[in-house]
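Posting for a labmate who doesn't have an account.
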Amino acid sequence: MLTISNSVALADWEIDLTQIRAQGNGGQNVNKVASAVHLRFDVQRSTLPGFYKERLMQLSDQRISKEGVIIIKAQSHRTLELNKEDALARLKAMILEAVKVQKARRATAPSKGAKRRRVDSKTRKGKIKAMRGKVQD
């Protein structure tokens, strides 16, 4: 069972964990031990509340397929148990990030003093560059 929040939890049957061989270098161990984990989570079939499902499907994340299946590959650790924990933690973080309400952005404008300082620094820099020309006799 993966606990997302106080009221939301995912059952074990909703998360499909598969052992695979890790990619990359690692000597003989990487070629004979299946220590990487492929996590598959179907958003549409899950018991998540509707709000969670909507927000997850709106994410523009390459780990979410068009059918609504989240695929996470964890292979950064040497042991299967650590990779499982890593994959589950990344799934939880993705779900929590999706339901986080963004703060409304208010448009602001620079103050008169800031504008004046910006223009003054530009003219100062322009005068310095103008003095870099050839020296006339």
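Reply:
Got it, the structure tokens are right above this. The CA atoms of residues 56 and 95 lie 7 Å apart.
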